[in-house]
Amino acid sequence: MSQSVPLDGGALIAHFRHATAEDVRGLAFLQDRELTHEVLIQLKETQFPDSLGLRLQSEEGKKACDLLRKGLAEIAMPLDQAVLDDLAADFAGIYLNSRYHVTPYESPWCTEEGLMRQAPMIQVREWYKKYDLLAKDWKKRPDDYIALELEMVAYLLGAEDKEGTLADAAQFLDEHLLRWIKPFATEVSLRCTTRFYAGLVWLTAAYLEEVRNLLASILQVPRPSPEEVEMRMRNLNRPVGMICTPVTELVAEEAERAAKLTQQEEKKRD
User: Fold this and answer.
1) pLDDT category, 8, cuts 50, 70, 90?
2) What is the distance between the alpha carbons of residues 106 and 148, in angstroms, rounded to a whole number?
3) Which of 34, 206, 222, 238 could anchor a disulfide with 61, C-beta 3.0 to 4.6 Å?
4) What is the mean pLDDT of residues 72-99?
């Protein structure tokens, strides 16, 4: 898909929404679970990332695509179990066990304390609530997990029947993923052991940047500067959309909720 999206081209904008929603959903899927034999075959057969609906134009995007191509090309067929094991170990180090000391959650990146389950997670949850969405297994995997945030972007891009979702996609990207995806991708690409995952995170960051630039053109609203976004986000009591519960109260509610669940689990064990 070309990066030139005419503002009066309703059909092209509809195509943009469908293509980018599918792309972002695919990026979320690849960062949500380990690669399987079947998924790798599909990626190679579709010549991923050239199969993306949006062809990236930035130098960063082109370099990321090239790295990912090389990562897939070096995975020989038929697949060797050792290759799958290496990919699984890389996935675990990035997304599961913090072996690379890089977190796939927003809160540690966007708060001074660097802790999990902070205000960014609550704000993301409020976005989900606004659209009657709910993160599964929130206790095991908080709402600000990278794959869940990508799923939210995909939902907003693809929700053609709901008014204002493109503007909400732009706002969600500004206030959440685009505040931390670049440093996350940089650290992962430096520490992981496979070209595939280095390329994947790098591609994800570049892709979101280009989508955000296109949204600015479609909406005819300039992107805020990083400084403007940070100023906007400093007040943790700022409501999200039409949700007006102060974030500080929600953080307290979250802590109380987790404590009650822990007590219930301990009683069951006893």
Assistant:
1) low
2) 11
3) 206
4) 95
- SS3 string of the chain? CCCCCCCCCHHHHHHHHHHHHHHHHHHHHHCCCCCCHHHHHHHHHCCCCCCCCCCCCCHHHHHHHHHHHHHHHCCCCCCCHHHHHHHHHHHHHHHHCCCCCCCCEHHHHHCCCCCCCCHHHHHHHHHHHHCCCCCCCCCCCCCCEHHHHHHHHHHHHHCCCCCCHHHHHHHHHHHHHHHHHHHHHHHHHHHCCCHHHHHHHHHHHHHHHHHHHHHHHHHCCCCCCHHHHHHHHCCCCCCCCCCCCCHHHHHHHHHHHHHHHHHHHHHHHC
Q: Express each pLDDT in 232-264 by its tens digit.
A: 998 654 544 433 334 444 444 555 555 555 455
Joined together, the tokens standing for residue 147 give 């794959």
The CATH number, out of the four listed (1.10.3480, 2.160.20, 1.20.1280, 1.10.10), of the domain defined by the range 10-104+145-234: 1.10.3480
Q: Dihedral angle at the C-alpha atoms of 16, 19, 24, 26, nearest 10 degrees? A: 180
Quick: pLDDT tens for 151-193.
999 999 999 888 899 999 999 999 999 999 999 999 999 999 9
Phi and psi based region of residue 230 (left: phi greater than 0; alpha: psi -120 to 50; beta: remaining) = alpha
Domain ranges of the chain: 10-104+145-234
Angle, CA of 104, 175 and 223, to the nearest 5°: 125
Bridge partners of residue 145, in order along the sequence: 105
Q: Tell me: the pLDDT tens digits for 189-212?
A: 999 999 999 999 999 999 999 999
